[in-house]
Amino acid sequence: MSDVDLNLALLADIKPEPAIDVAKFRESDEGKALVSWALSQHKAMKSARQTEERDWKRNYAMYSGKQYIQILRQGQYAGQWIEKPRSASQERKTINRIEPMIRTEISRLTSQKPSASVLPASSDDADMFAAFAGEQVWESHSDRRKFPSVLMEAVFWLCITGNGYIKTYWDESEIDRDSGEQGDVVFENVTPFNVLVPDLRATDIEKQPYLCNYYTKPLSWLKMFYGDALKGIKLTPSSNAANEIIEDSVLNLSDAQKAQPDSCVVYEFWVKPRGHESLPNGGYFVIVDDVLVAYSDSYPYAHGEFPIASVGHLLTGKFYRRSVINSVCDLQKDYNSWRSQLSDARKKMGKPQLTAVKGSVSAARWSNTTGMLIEVRPGFQFPQPLPIAPLPQYIMEEGQHILTDIEDISGQHQVSKGNVPPGVTAATAISYLQEKDDSYLSPTYQSIEDFCQKIARQTLSLVVQFWDIPRLVKVAGDDSQFDALQLSGSDIANGTDIRIEAGSSLPTSKAARQAFVMDLMNAGFVEPDRGLEILEIGGATKLIDQLKTDKRQAQRENIKMKSLTPEDLELHQMNWATLQAQGDPSTVSQIGEPLEAPPVVTVNSWDNHQVHIDTHNLYRRSQAFQFLSDEIKVQFETHVNMHKQMLQQDQLQQMLAGIPSDGSAPGISGIIDPSTGQAVNEPTDGSGQGVPTSDPLSAMGGETTNGTAGE
Q1: Is there a single domain that holds both residue 652 and residue 667?
Q2: d(Cα 594, Cα 592) in Å, to the nearest integer?
Q3: CB 134, CB 496: distance < 8 Å
Q4: Distance (Å, rounded) from C-alpha 262 to C-alpha 253?
Q5: Residues ≥6 apart with Cβ < 8 Å to 430
Q6: Domain range for residue 599?
Q7: DSSP secondary structure string, 371-426?
Q8: CB of 456 within 8 A of CB of 500?
Q9: What is the domain count for the chain?
């Protein structure tokens, strides 16, 4: 049983405790001490990551095109980034190479939806259904709450700052649009600026003793959500929402510093067990400015985890990770300087400075207007262009060196941008280059898969905890087949162990998927009409999903067979003996001989027999299979043999279907002798007697013309 299932089981035995009077608790010494501790910890955590916040703001400014910035060292706004002033004659070019780099990263990290599946708690049919229902709930809920869009926002902050967060929580005020019921699981993107942790050495957010999610809200919002707790409390705006956490000037919303308070700061603390002496069992509390408005001395969610999941980019060995922007900022500035220098040289060469003898022309009437008339005093020379030395070759090549460095650091070479390097034409070579570029992001892909797995697991846990009555779940299955189920939390209580398939978030090329399907069609593995259908509804991904459906079915059969007990086998034999005693025709052969009992896990006519055979044999080659009892190994052997028999029957039927109705064998100039089942060639010598040939069915392992079994 997983930790989540264990927590859910324990939750069922927890007796509801009386609600804590928040107003009374905050007036106690313990409540006042808790508020004082929380505010001091918030200040300490924010101070400890000043360097990271400063880098995040710079990265956002660089991405947004504000690339001539400097940090203020003194004054009221010390530590903030502002744009450097420039003179009117100074050339300042901004060629933003960071924006397309980040856009490419976001596209690569979100182009493929991670594939999720639920592992059943056991081989029981009820647990199998719970696993299936859990998958359906996650697919339905993630689509209904637009999880891909929330994930994209988190990935944006991941690429800018190196850190991304999504908050998964139960909101009683939300409405489940499919069922119309009150309350729903909500996904919310949280910026890195709004999350604080105390231990910067712990790389896993779940290893933190507590965390703080702080934000600003206007008084109207606070009165709506915490009206009862704020009775008798007169709140006044204490901060400016535009500049309290992340300044509007950083987000390019406003260049002016707004000093007028319009909001209050909300501190939301989540504490793990033993994270604070006042909360030995864990809990959470909410403070508005310095007023405690919510408090719970036990963890509200059965999964026992923080409701905020984190995803990281470049590894640093610390909690906060880095963005690639950190490493290319200086290169971007050098590139801008180089382009500005070229632009300045171009203007000087296009309109060079002139030299003239003093007094030969009127300087006051001089301008750079094209085609202007220049009057020169008699006896003086005409103005001459000032000689300009051409730029050295190494300066002309400097730009390409900078771009090459940016490509190497970011891992985005020509193939990542849709351009093929000169001389590379083979599809295999192009795929190899794409994989090498993707290898830069392998840790990030792994982090995103773990990130999505945690969110999916928490979602199912909240569904189990809060769905008291059945709710409508709408899903779109394979081939866009729609289905609707009525499910409650108890239906998936043993189906919350959801897993994200490793590598499923890696991007795949649409052209490569289409080429893959075409190769399958050319090789005969996929019928042409079926291949065109697959190409229309999503390419190879749909085909792979269907193959995964067969594979997962076979894997569930593996679980059932390896979990069989001696009692199960004995009961199966008894049931079979009872059927034979009752004269059931399915228990005897065509000649009346009694048949051996079939395997406990039956073989269906609609199974993909080849996929089942491969999946079962793969498990039989594992070490886990060697430790099973001989009786269970016999069950596997019998089950696989039945798949092989049915596969041979299907192949035989397909071959017989290809024989023309007039009795002639395909590919053989002759007919089939109905008395012998052998092909007879047409007579060529006028004797009227055909020449026997080998049976075309012998290639399928049937009998040959001499009555012996074919290999």
Answers
A1: no
A2: 6
A3: yes
A4: 17
A5: 415, 420, 424
A6: 541-657
A7: T------TTSPPPEEPP-PPPPHHHHHHHHHHHHHHHHHHT--GGGGT-PPTT---
A8: yes
A9: 3
pLDDT of residue 378 exceeding 90, the answer is no
Token pair of 569 as six digits: 């086998």
Tokens standing for residue 266? 């909300």
Whether residue 254 is predicted with pLDDT greater than 60 in this model: the reply is: no
| 566 and 632 inside one domain | yes
**682 in a domain, yes or no?**
yes
Residue-wise DSSP of 135-171: HHHHHHHHHHTTHHHHHHHHHHHHHHHSEEEEEEEEE
The tokens for 191 are: 């910026």
What does the pLDDT look like over 307-341, one tens digit per residue? 999 999 999 999 999 999 999 999 999 999 999 88
SS3 82: strand
Neighbouring CB atoms inside 10 A of 439's CB total 11
What is the C-alpha separation between 182 and 708, in angstroms, rounded?
Answer: 72
Tell me the pLDDT of the chain averaged across its residues.
Answer: 80
Cβ atoms 396, 345 nearer than 8 A: no
Higher local confidence (pLDDT), 674 or 511: 511
pLDDT of residue 69: 84
Highest mean pLDDT: which of 357-371, 567-581, 630-644?
Answer: 630-644
Give the bridge partners for 472, in sequence order. 486
Per DSSP, the three-state class of 58 is helix
Q: pLDDT tens digit string along 194-234?
A: 999 999 999 999 999 999 999 999 998 998 889 888 888 88
Whole-model pTM?
0.72
Which among 498, 522, 538 is the end of a domain? Answer: 538
- Regarding whether 534 and 521 lie in a shared domain, the answer is yes
Residue with more model confidence, 497 or 17: 497
| CB-neighbour burial class of residue 245 (10 A; exposed 0-12, middle 13-18, buried 19+) | middle
Distances (CA, A) of 521 to 346, 506, 526, 647: 57, 25, 5, 21
Q: How far is CA 377 from CA 320, 352, 359, 369, in A?
A: 72, 22, 8, 20
What residue has token string 């003179």? 87
My answer on whether 533 and 545 are in the same domain is no
Q: What angle do CA 8, 445, 417 make, to 5 degrees?
A: 150
548 lies in the same domain as 635: yes
**Burial grade of 580 (CB within 10 A; 0-12, 13-18, 19 or more):** middle
Cβ atoms within 10 Å, residue 30? 10
